[in-house]
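TASK: fixed-backbone design
INPUT:
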């Protein structure tokens, strides 16, 4: 089973009165001076209950930034690498990739168990613990929409279980 979630993100602007949500156009209409405007779109995919002979885990769903397992989650093992393909607008992504598992660090947000970089659309994450794992990729600074936001930032997350 593959569960999908998308969030057509909101714009976040730095203004003369600090950070505000809303587009450049909306905030300027309120009399604010907008210094910068960024939009954040988020995508998530959870793969559950895979079997060793299932191939559906590798389905490409078409997210603008998408993480696709090359390793079947049913075959993922502690001590081995979990391989993923990452696409940015259908093309191979090169950039940072973070991974972590449930319970790694509960005290702090945005703390990850593993960091690597994707090259030519592929990344390799060493599995160090059983449990629910998440892999995250980001792309910042894509072209914005005139008058609304200066840059588009994408966030993608893949969740799967290692037994």
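OUTPUT:
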């Amino acid at each position: 089973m593959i569960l999908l979630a998308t969030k057509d993100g909101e714009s976040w602007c730095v203004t003369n009165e600090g950070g505000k949500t809303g587009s450049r156009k909306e905030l300027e209409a309120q009399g604010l001076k907008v210094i910068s405007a960024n939009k954040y779109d988020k995508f998530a995919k959870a793969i559950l209950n895979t079997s060793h002979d299932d191939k559906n885990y590798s389905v490409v769903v078409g997210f603008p930034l998408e993480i696709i397992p090359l390793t079947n989650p049913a075959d993922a093992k502690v001590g081995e690498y979990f391989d993923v393909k990452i696409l940015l607008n259908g093309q191979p992504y090169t950039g940072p990739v973070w991974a972590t598992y449930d319970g790694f660090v509960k005290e702090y947000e945005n703390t990850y168990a593993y960091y690597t970089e994707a090259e030519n659309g592929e990344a390799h994450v060493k599995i160090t613990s059983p449990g629910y794992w998440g892999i995250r990729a980001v792309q910042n600074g894509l072209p914005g929409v005139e008058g609304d936001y200066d840059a588009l930032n994408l966030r993608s997350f893949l969740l799967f279980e290692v037994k």
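COMMENT: The helical segments are 24-29.
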